[in-house]
Amino acid sequence: QEDEDESPSKKLVTDHSVKVARHYNDRQDVGLAARSRSRIFFMRNFNNWLKSVLIGEILEQVRAAGSRQVSVLDLGCGKGGDLLKWKRGGISHLVCADIAAVSVEQCQSRYEDISRRSHPSERLFSAQFITADCTKDLLSEKLDDAQLMFDICSCQFVYHYSFESEQKAEMMLRNACERLKPGGFFIGTTPDAFELVKRLEASDSLSFGNEVFKVTFQSKGSYPLFGCQYHFSLEDVVNVPEFLVYFPLFEHMAKRYNMRLVLKQRFSEFFQEKVKKEHHRQLMMKMMALEPFPSHGKGHQATDTSGEYSHAEEHCGRAGVRLPVGTLSKSEWEATSIYLVFVFQKMS
Ligand SMILES: C[S@@+](CC[C@H](N)C(=O)[O-])C[C@H]1O[C@@H](n2cnc3c(N)ncnc32)[C@H](O)[C@@H]1O
Question: What family, per the record (predicted)?
């Protein structure tokens, strides 16, 4: 799949979007049983929990501001991993867009499945599915309803693909923001460039990572604002080129669309704040977002590698701690703590 070793002239025309689309199109939808055997089962659930909390809280704010018919754009929807979250949130209309045609097809058939299984009394949101490179194509020209305006644009684990060039980042941002209603939100999750560079600078080589993820840069010491590429691989999940998103620049660019940054939080901070609320904790249990430790006869921990649960062992040793506790292995925590949550709001 890599074009890196080919002639310099070919290299000049390399468009990473093509690689990204090919990568996601080739990925199989493995189903629940296989997912539950994955080394990063709990981390994936944790990330899903975090998105659920973010989406739930933003929907509450949209409703509090008086919106009844909520329209959402899921930018980089993938196979539709967030469809049930939108169903739970009771939205009215969803537009799903992604560069990977196979993912968009799977997203649409997942939507049709949910629709078939829904009780007739619970009206599922209407939906449109668009295959498009959102760093190049203008989505507003592809909407079935040319007048449609969105309450929310959700861009989960996607925006970093656009920072390949200024034009691409600009088009992705335009797609995210130009059809937002005044007061509407642009929300998402993306790696924190500061954290990536900090870990790179602390490493003896051009890579860092552990048994679940690996990040490899091409050089270090100098980081261009656009096109600062690194390679990210996460156990059997992602293995594609990504680009640093220098957040102050992202924030500056968003101002052109009248967007004000209202929240930027590392996953670790977001978790620590949200876990204080009982209903978020209950959702964590339901979504199996943390791994029970010790597992005591209920199967093995996610890994046998020594030291991966030393933090949990230490915690369990404290007086008054009820067992089992919920945790993530150190490697999973190191991987997920790279990310941040952002929320922008369109000013009127
Ligand atoms: C890590 S997946 C996240 C999928 C989904 N948002 C989720 O949270 O489950 C990243 C997605 O971004 C999509 N993507 C990457 N570059 C894109 C582009 N230029 N235009 C549209 N989608 C893109 C990929 O095809 C992939 O589905």
Answer: Belongs to the class I-like SAM-binding methyltransferase superfamily. mRNA cap 0 methyltransferase family.
Does 330 belong to an annotated binding site?
Answer: no
Asked if 97 and 75 count as a contact pair (C-beta separation under 8 A), the reply is: yes
pTM: 0.93
223 is in an annotated binding site: no
pLDDT of residue 13: 46
Alpha-carbon gap, residue 74 to 87, rounded angstroms = 13
**What is the tens place of the pLDDT at every residue in 86-108?**
999 999 999 999 999 999 999 99
Structurally, the chain folds into a number of domains equal to 1
Q: How confident is the model at residue 14, as a pLDDT?
A: 63
In a domain, 77, yes or no: yes
Residue nearest to atom 14 of ligand 1 (CA): 76
Determine the pLDDT at residue 223: 98
Q: Alpha-carbon torsion 227, 229, 234, 237, what sign? A: positive
- The answer to whether 48 is annotated as binding is yes
SS3 readout for 104-117: HHHHHHHHHHHHHH
Provide residues with CB under 6 Å of ligand 1. 17, 20-21, 24, 76-78, 81, 98-100, 103, 133-135, 156-158, 161, 238
pLDDT-flagged residues of the chain (< 70): 1-14, 28, 30-35, 236-238, 297-299
Asked, for residue 294, whether it belongs to a domain, the answer is no
Ligand 1 site-directed mutation target among 103, 158, 165, most atoms within 8 Å of CB: 158
> Which CATH number is 167's domain given?
3.40.50.150
Give tens-digit pLDDT for 134-148: 999 999 999 999 999
Give the ligand 1 atom nearest the CA of 133. Answer: 20
pLDDT score for 164:
97
Spatial distance between the Cα atoms of 240 and 57, rounded to a whole number of angstroms: 31
Q: Residue 3 has what pLDDT?
A: 34
Task: Confirm whether 324 is domain-assigned.
Answer: no
Question: Quick check: is 109 in a domain?
Answer: yes
Question: Which phi and psi angles does 192 have, rounded to 5°?
Answer: -85, 110
Q: Are residues 104 and 74 in contact, defined by beta-carbon separation less than 8 angstroms?
A: no
Check whether 258 is labelled as a binding-site residue.
Answer: no
Distance 340 CA to ligand 1 centre (A): 16
Phi and psi for 166 in degrees, rounded to 5? -65, -40
